[in-house]
Specification:
The structure holds 2 protein chains of 2 kinds.
Chain A lengths: L1 H8 L5 H10 L1 H18 L4 H6 L2 H27 L8 H14 E2 L4 E2 L2 H23 L4 H21 L1 H4 L12 E2 L3 E2 L5 H24 L1 H11 L1 H6 L4 H27 L9 H14 L4 H27 L8 H4 L7 H15 L8 H7 L1 H5 L1 H18 L7 H7 L6 H4 L9
Antiparallel strand pairs in A: 1-2, 3-4
Helix pairs in contact in A: 2-3, 3-10, 5-10, 5-13, 5-14, 5-15, 6-7, 6-8, 6-13, 7-13, 10-11, 10-13, 11-13, 14-15, 14-17, 18-21, 20-21
Chain B lengths: L9 H5 L4 H20 L4 H32 L6 H23 L8 H31 L8 H22 L4 E2 L10 E4 L2 E4 H23 L1 H11 L1 H6 L4 H27 L1 E2 L3 H16 L4 H20 L6 H15 L14
Antiparallel strand pairs in B: 1-4, 2-3
Classes of the chains: A mainly alpha, B mainly alpha.
Chain lengths: 426, 352
């Protein structure tokens, strides 16, 4: 592919070559990309529209909290986006990570284990529960898995709620110790910057690992299973083990998120892990673009920020309308109350009109657009459109996603339609 | 026995017609004896719990029918179905409040003809409305995705579920909305010696049974029912035989919705409250019932509904209400792991 691109564009280092470098040196590009993101985010709150909303510290705080959702979305993306398994109880693994940290470092348990150790322990515990849930259920067909995970996600908070001798029930475990890390030193309640740095660090590591997994044999096996499980099995992939691995990796990431969140909030209680969390994360993954790691991360970050900061600000903003004739109605609307309604609508609309998400993964898009291929009318339309675009552009690449889906990518268009990080070629 | 998705299995063909009723009756009797003698619960309470289980189970069975029919025909777990039931409960609540407000009647109505008329009217209003709501959901959200990969309609269903739940939340608020219990619970009781059980439980049970028999007859004996069964077995072949797929699938959603609407009316009568997150839990339990009985199997869904009702009431009787959800989930997990085809379902190889 590189040869073709070079041949077409000459020796000039153009857009395609840049993309190619990004893809080939993925670890480095993620390191550079995330450092840039971290750097920009640190200074973003000083820039007018953002500096007007909130103080710098408050922004860093909400960035770090949004990072928790980014991690969750990255993990769920492995399960839903890469392996194509619908996990509706994802918050349960988040809970296991959080409660593990609560047992490892709080006055309630009397232990005070170091943060980094607990980070790994939390991930391991979450992964174990992932295996425990996955081992019996992943043999079942996909939709049974969905209902099983839904039930599991529903039960885990109930168990934490009901076993109050061990978890202090509704009140939750409070007074959890904050991290104390080698270079950063002990964390205080106002050290938002330290949490921010740790979060960026965790996300960077996770993204590198996930990208390497995705590009590996295992990643290809996940995608093969997602696209056609029978064919994957026929090609010698052990589908149960591979799916189980996806489940465990997803749970691990949720475990990281749980530990971090517990150390930041210093309290864990069952109501932090209700179905609404699983649903929110699913909405983030779907909106961001199932299967595309960067897309999912961006989607999760933006939605989490909207949820934590923008809606609150909007509420405060419209509340200033109180007493003004027409706008008074607006001032009584609580936008936070509508957020799940909006997520629901967004999910449904995305599934109906743009199933590949806002930042699609190339391969995922083709797969999700298969429906139109089966529909003779759409196929006819697509053929027409393709014919039209060929005559107009003289063999140029069709850009309409329907056309791409129905026809498959025309040879040579791969480089041009590929996103910098979005293509999961194997 | 009418299996909507799978042809009657050899095992079920071997069972005589009296098998299921007798086993069910035996099960209920065993349940009573278990409560009475193993757990040492008083005669009156034990009988009362059996009656409770029958009415709770009837509600789950009615909701489970919607899951099982939809799954049978398009292989979709309609996550929104529990919330459709919740909307039904709200519609019934709204209707009864309006009627009571405009006629000056007060909540327990002791005049039997008026009571039956009112319940009948509530059913007549709720069932078609909720059926149509379900048809609308199918038309606009599921039909465009009928040929899409499995994940797409599932995620859409979850989205629809959240939309319904949150619309209810915005309109009715997050608390319990009290629904007029027009059926006198305290005064109308069947007394057997010292023991009394409310007629309401028996009424609910009877109503559910009548609706289920009607459904069985419809699916088993009519032309449209045959179209449904054939679509469930093989969609393409049915279409080639002249079955209108869209109409048949819409009909399935209509029937499922109507039964969920009836369950909503019954819920209001029995529990006297409705809330926006009602559908989520009830939906999970009803789905468990459908899986337990053998998904796609109408008789199985009813049986499963009653079993789940009994299991839940059992947990409540032992004073472990807060664990009832957990117990139901464990049942779901065990069934899925050890007998994914359910009690009455055909043992088919998993598509994995």
């Amino acid at each position: 592919m590189t040869a073709a691109a070079v041949g077409r564009r000459g020796r000039r280092f153009g857009r395609d070559e840049f993309r190619d470098v990004l893809v080939r040196h993925r670890t480095v590009s993620i390191l550079v990309g995330m450092s840039l993101v971290g750097f920009l985010l640190y200074f973003l709150p000083y820039v007018p529209p953002f500096s007007l909303f909130n103080f710098h510290q408050a922004w860093l705080n909400s960035f770090a909290s949004a990072g928790v959702f980014v991690l969750l979305a990255l993990g769920l993306n492995v399960v839903v986006g890469l392996a194509g398994l619908l996990d509706l109880g994802y918050a349960a693994f988040f809970a296991f990570g959080a409660y593990t940290y609560a047992y490892g470092a709080s006055p309630f348990s009397g232990n005070h284990a170091p943060f980094l150790l607990m980070l790994f322990l939390g991930a391991v515990v979450a992964a174990l529960f992932g295996l425990l849930l996955g081992a019996p259920t992943l043999r079942l067909r996909g939709d049974y898995l969905a209902i099983m995970t839904l039930g599991f996600g529903e039960i885990v908070p109930i168990v934490f709620l009901n076993t109050d001798e061990y978890t202090r029930g509704t009140n939750g475990i409070g007074g959890i110790y904050r991290p104390d890390l080698p270079i950063l030193g002990p964390f205080g309640a106002l050290d938002n910057f330290k949490y921010f740095v740790v979060m960026v660090f965790i996300i960077t590591i996770t993204m590198i690992l996930l990208y390497r997994l995705q590009d590996s044999r295992i990643g290809r096996a996940w995608m093969a299973i997602r696209e056609d499980e029978l064919a994957a099995a026929a090609n010698g992939i052990n589908t149960v083990t591979t799916k189980l691995l996806a489940f465990a990796i997803g749970a691990t990431t949720a475990g990281f998120a749980g530990v971090f969140n517990a150390s930041k909030l210093t309290i864990v209680s069952p109501d932090q892990f209700l179905f609404a969390v699983s649903f929110t994360v699913l909405a983030m993954v779907v909106l961001g673009g199932m299967g595309n790691i960067w897309g999912v991360a961006v989607g999760a970050f933006v939605i989490a920020l909207i949820q934590s900061t923008f809606l609150t600000q909007l509420n405060q903003f419209v509340s200033t309308f109180r007493g003004i004739p027409v706008l008074d109605i607006l001032s009584r609307v609580n936008f936070i109350q509508y957020q799940f309604l909006l997520y629901g609508i967004a999910l449904v609309l995305m599934m109906l009109f743009r199933p590949e998400g806002l930042f699609p993964s190339q391969r995922r898009r083709m797969e999700l657009r298969v429906a139109e291929e089966l529909d003779p009318e759409a196929e006819a339309k697509a053929l027409e459109a393709a014919a039209a675009s060929e005559t107009v552009a003289g063999g140029g690449e069709p850009t309409d996603p329907v056309v791409v889906g129905a026809m498959g990518p025309p040879p040579g268009s791969d480089e041009d339609t590929a996103r910098p990080y979005g293509d999961d070629r194997s | 026995m009418t299996a909507i998705a799978t042809p009657a299995s050899p095992a079920s063909r071997r069972r005589p017609a009296w098998f299921l009723p007798v086993v069910s009756l035996g099960g209920v009797a065993a349940y009573y004896l278990l409560l009475r003698f193993v757990f040492g619960i008083g005669e009156g309470t034990a009988l009362q719990q059996v009656a409770n289980a029958l009415s709770t189970g009837a509600i789950y069975a009615l909701v489970a029918l919607g899951y099982t029919m939809v799954y049978g025909i398009i292989e979709l777990i309609n996550f929104a179905h529990g919330d459709v039931f919740m909307v039904g409960a709200f519609v019934s609540l709204f209707f009864l409040v309006q009627v009571l407000g405009n006629t000056g009647l007060t909540a327990p109505i002791t005049n039997l003809p008026v009571l039956l008329l009112l319940i009948g009217a509530a059913l007549l209003v709720t069932m078609p409305l909720i059926g149509l709501l379900n048809v609308g959901i199918e038309r606009f959200f599921y039909r465009p995705l009928r040929n899409a990969p499995r994940l797409a309609p599932l995620i859409t269903a979850i989205g629809v579920s959240f939309i319904l739940q949150n619309i209810a939340l915005v309109i009715a608020g997050s608390g319990d909305e009290s629904s007029p219990q027009i059926f006198p619970i305290r005064d109308w009781r069947l007394s057997i010696g010292e023991i009394t059980i409310p007629y309401l439980s028996l009424f609910v049970f009877a109503l559910a049974m009548v609706l289920m028999v009607l459904l069985q007859t419809f699916v088993g004996r009519t032309r449209l029912g045959r179209a449904m069964r054939s679509t469930a077995q093989d969609r393409e072949a049915a279409a080639l035989m002249g079955v209108d797929l869209n109409q048949t699938i819409a009909l399935t959603f209509l029937l499922g919705g109507a039964l969920a609407g009836a369950a909503g009316v019954v819920w209001g009568l029995t529990y006297g409250y409705v809330r926006s997150d009602l559908g989520f839990n009830a939906g999970l339990k009803a789905f468990t019932s459908a899986v337990l009985g053998g998904i796609g199997n109408i008789t199985g869904a009813v049986l499963g509904g009653f079993i789940i009702g009994f299991v839940e009431v059992f947990a409540t009787t032992l004073g472990q209400t807060r664990w009832s959800q957990f117990v139901v989930f464990v049942v779901l997990a065990l069934v899925l792991v050890f007998r994914p085809a359910g009690i009455l379902g055909q043992q088919v190889g998993e598509r994995a």
